[in-house]
Structure formats: C-alpha cells, structure tokens
Amino acid sequence: MENLSNLDYASYLKGWIRTVPNWPHDGVMFRDITPLLQNPKTFRVLIDIFVHRYMNEKIDMVAGLDARGFIIGSVLAYELNVGFIPIRKKGKLPFTTVEEEYELEYGNAVVEMHTDACKPGDRVVLVDDLIATGGTMMAGYKLLQRLGAEVVEAAAIIELPELGGGKLMRDAKVPLFTVCSFNGL
What we know:
This protein is of the alpha/beta class and about 180 residues long. The chain has a single domain (about 5-180), classed as Rossmann fold (3-Layer(aba) Sandwich), CATH 3.40.50. It has helices at about 10-15, 35-40, 40-55, 70-80, 135-145, 165-170, and strands at about 20, 30, 60-65, 85-90, 95-105, 105-115, 125-130, 150-160, 175-180. The strands form two sheets. A seven-stranded mixed β-sheet has the order 5-6-4-3-7-8-9, with helices on both faces. α3 packs across α4. The longest helix is centred in the first third of the chain and has 15 residues, at about 40-55. It is globular, with a radius of gyration of 16 Å. The model has no long low-confidence stretch (mean pLDDT about 95). It catalyses: AMP + diphosphate = 5-phospho-alpha-D-ribose 1-diphosphate + adenine.
C-alpha cells in the first residue's frame, strides 16, 4: 500500500491527470481529470486538500463553474457544511439570473447565476477544475462581486501558466489557489 504522507500531493494527483493531445482542436493538450475522479483514493486526497485549505476560514458558500467545477465545488460545500452556488452556461438556470460575458479564443461565451444565489457580504470560494486563459473564472468572480459577495479565493485543480489566466487573476488582485500546473500547451 502506498504511503501518501511521504509524497508530494500535487505530484501524486498530477500523475492521475490524463493528457489528451489534439482535443478538442489540433495543438491543444487537453488535461482530463476523470481518471483522478474515478479513483476513490485520489478523489479523496484532492477534496481533502481543498477542505483543509478552507476549514478554518469563515466561508458561507462555495460557487462552482459549469461543469467540472460543480464536481469539486459541491463536494467541498458539503464537507465545509455550507451552501453551493452553480454558475452555469447561459440559458440553463430557470429563475431570474445575472450574467457575465467573457472572451474565448474563438469567440464569446456567457455564464450566469441566480440573482438570489448569495447575499451581500457572503464569503465565497469560487471553484473550477482548471484555469487556462482565466475568462470563465474572471466572469464568475465578477458575477459574485456584482451580487455583493466577497470572493475569499478562486481555486482550481490545474493551472496552465502559459495561457495567462492565473496571471490575469493575480493582476486583478483575486487570490488564487491551484493544486498543480502543467507547462506546455
């Protein structure tokens, strides 16, 4: 049996992330977290990293970005005994929403959340699986701010530093935590 106490957790988890070349476009190295999620031990280690990071903070809500941010965010919210806010792609939420448009490398996209998802002053952790260009994460951050929430930290499993999203968030003074990073597109 492997003794994780002697390992670097980020390296351990990174080893469970599959790289799929040329998906969804030529030249893209897609970082697939599904093998990490399929293994109960690695999934628990991942969630525990986030839980231990935030368990002594005053957190009111966890917000997860559509769709893989829902996986980590909802489990984290459960473990922290706080509510969960889904931030979805446009047109997926049934109630009154507030929306934010952001740029993609091939066009624009919109994310939205319910107008009653959080209250002014709520302390929120914003979660996604990956930060690449930072567009989705920044859009989620702006939505939460618009409703008066305080984003304690943005968090992701993976950062792709070459695409500049982490730098974008840090330059905007948004605290950012990532478990591991991959160089090379």
